[in-house]
Amino acid sequence: MKKIAGITASGFLVLCFIGFLASPSLESATLSADTSIVYDVDEQIEIDVVTEPDNYSFSTSSFHVSGGEIEEIDGTYFFSSDEPGTFDVRLGSSEEKCNTLTFSIEDKAAVAKAEKEAGEKKAKEEKAKKKADEEAAKKKAEEEAAKKKAEEERIAAEKAEEERLAAEKAEQERIAAEQAEQARIAAELAEQQRIAAEQAEQQRIATEQAEQARIAAEQAAQQQQQEQLVWISATGKKYHSRSNCGNMDPNKAYQLTLSEAQARGYDACKRCH
Length: 273
Hints:
4-stranded mixed β-sheet; about 270 residues; 4-stranded antiparallel β-sheet; alpha+beta; disordered N terminus
């Protein structure tokens, strides 16, 4: 039994070696698949393989992959991965003989869940942002209203202060006008008093002068009564003791005191003196 098994095994190895020597070598290979889309995990991606020579024999182990796995189903090769990522696939290890396919794999359920969670998070954030914006807008409106009210109060206070200052100024001007009027009236009264005093003084002086004149007149009259009177003619340079002396016209004769007649240059009439 052992001998038969050994012979059988040796024969199998010989056949494999003969088959290996008979199999043609790979000159080139072209892999084709849709690499423009993103595939889901565990999704089988069909790969079309064209080799030169076309009778080149290969298996799933002939593929070089950076992750995932190659599976053969009814002579057709498929690539799949149970993990998300980017994976390179080519036939053989030589990049010169075969092009490289790059597949993008993602966990669509996880992505959808993440997108949903992200959407929910975004919606929550937007809601929170909207609420924050509304609160900020409300706070800003309140601040602007308070600022506007403060500005209105400031303007009102300034206006009230201006009105107070204007009222004070008007009162001061009124008081100044009253004082000026009182001063004017006092000046007029003083002027009237001065004029009255001057007039009184003038009247006093005039009264004194009149009194002095009266006294002088009385004294002159008394002196004249006491002094000898003489007659003076309308013409001539003589004084007479009577009004009808010689050719005198008694109607035109007048009397003077002797001293006054002498003072005027009259001489005594030799006829009546």
